[in-house]
Amino acid sequence: MKALVESFTEQLKAAKNIASKAVISKSGSIQNIIVTGLGGSGIGGTILNELVNDSCSVPIMINKDYFLPAFANANTLLIVSSYSGNTEETVQVMNEAISRKVQIVCVTSGGKVLELAKQHQFDFIEIPGGNPPRSCIGYSLVQLIQILIAKGFADKKLMADLDKSIDLLTKEKENIKTEATQIAKKLNGQLAVIYSLGTCEGVSVRFRQQINENSKALCWHHVFPEMNHNELVGWTTENKNLTVVTFHTSFDYKRTQKRYEVCKPIFQKFAKEVIDIKAKGDSKLEQFIYLIHIGDWISCYIADIRGIDAVEVNVINHLKQELSKF
């Protein structure tokens, strides 16, 4: 897994090259967009939504289930994201979308999704397969961005921001790894409580998923200001098995930042430690990619410390085998 994280900038370059060659047709009226996908294939949609939610002219819904929402119709753009192309829930959604005449574009490396796309002559972008889906967020996220650009719902500037993101990660490579190593040592044996300040909840979700899958550990995440209306009340008992990790960008709303400043001493009182991770870069995309990358490294270093295989997901394979019996 570390080799895949190490090559993330090369993946982003390859992803941009694939996107530049993608053929995405102009479509009819689009009144809403749904991105459907789960796990490592679905997190790109969550990040995408936060990248463009302040500029996209139609609502975007992120779907992580077996079914389409009732509003989906011929004026809906469904972006199907499945790395393997065989994600059970995603294939079912795609079949339902076909029957409901939804406009469909796919991002996949193969499988049933690619088969259906070719059969029904849907636009698709094929990405390289053969690796764990979570390690290929660069491939999927960049294609999702490209689809929105092609459909007229995102600014082409995002591709320039992608180039800057690659330059940033290259420049900060050793600093990122050093910081990630230090944080991993602090998190080893701890239950991570992950917070973000509204702007980048997707980064927190991604980090939680990477701790789950790469580090083989439990953790939880929440987001400001929502946690101020519920979870904050739970911070009333000392528990030195908890370490708080927070993600910050320069796009965080000032009032939300103030909420965190008030809450931080509360966390420090009851948890073992509070670790603030601050993004670098100018654009949202640069900052999101920076935070994602440092989080990926942290999860791998925790796996190293624990002496476990970051790649294996045997329990998920067991689940799939059991489900195949029904």
* Low confidence ranges: none
Percent helix: 40-55%
For CATH, the homologous superfamily of the largest domain is named as Glucose-6-phosphate isomerase like protein, domain 1
**Care to count the β-strands?**
9
Strand percent estimate: 15-25%
How would you portray this structure in words?
The chain is of the alpha/beta class. It has two domains: 2-155, Rossmann fold (3-Layer(aba) Sandwich); 173-306, 3-Layer(aba) Sandwich (Rossmann fold), CATH 3.40.50. It contains twelve helices and nine strands. It has helices at residues 2-6, 8-21, 39-52, 88-99, 111-119, 137-150, 157-171, 173-187, 201-213, 254-270, 284-306, 314-323; strands at 32-36, 60-63, 76-82, 103-108, 123-126, 191-196, 219-223, 242-248, 273-278. The strands form two sheets. Strands 2-1-3-4-5 form a five-stranded parallel beta sheet, sandwiched between helices. Helix 3 (39-52) runs antiparallel to helix 9 (201-213). The protein starts with a helix and ends with a helix. The mean pLDDT is 96.
